[in-house]
Design brief:
Oligomer: single chain
Helix content: 25-40%
Largest sheet: 5 strands, mixed, barrel
Strand content: 35-45%
Number of strands: 8
Radius of gyration: 29 Å
């Protein structure tokens, strides 16, 4: 008797589990920042995955979330993520540092109703690929010379105009 119930039970389980497998098997689109920002990407509402440098600073996003900007191939994408997801991010890109390189997976919204109609990605996962580093900028002293010559010429022009004006009054 138990054997007869086993097959229908397994069939019922398979039918009930099928929608869960369909959701779990949703396609992830590997893409880039410029492609995400393009209105012709066709990824609105889809799960996307892209890599880039974390830049700027985390911004308060409300409801236990923060905004992080990820610069991918020259295009910054706003990523909305839970506070705890940012724990791995240590270095944000700026003039003095290259930011952490991350891989973001999340749902793309080309006109997010929850965030004022802006394009954003609601992160589902964040993977640290490379830690950010200090960036060195060499001083180019010749630029100081060009600047000083420019200031000298500007002063000479101003002085000459002033002398001309003084002579016209007499």
């Amino acid at each position: 008797m138990k054997r007869r119930l086993l097959i229908p039970a397994l069939l019922a389980l398979a039918v009930l589990a099928a929608p869960a497998f369909a959701v779990a098997a949703e396609t992830i689109h590997d893409t880039t920042g410029p492609e995400i920002a393009s209105s012709e990407s066709g990824f609105d509402g889809a799960i996307v995955r892209f890599e880039g440098e974390v830049v700027s600073e985390p911004l308060f996003g409300g409801q236990g979330h923060v905004w992080v900007n990820v610069l991918s191939e020259g295009t910054a994408i706003g990523v909305w993520m839970p506070d705890e997801m940012t724990a791995e991010i240590e270095v944000f890109g700026r003039y003095s540092h290259t930011g952490d390189i991350v891989r973001v997976t999340g749902r793309l919204s080309e006109a997010c109703d929850a965030h004022g109609g802006d394009l954003d990605v609601h992160a589902e996962s964040l993977e640290l690929l490379e830690r950010g580093q200090r960036r060195e900028h060499s001083v180019e002293w010749w630029k100081l010379g060009v600047g000083l010559v420019g200031l000298g010429l500007a002063y000479a022009g101003w002085w000459r105009m002033r002398r001309k004006d003084e002579g016209a009054e007499w």
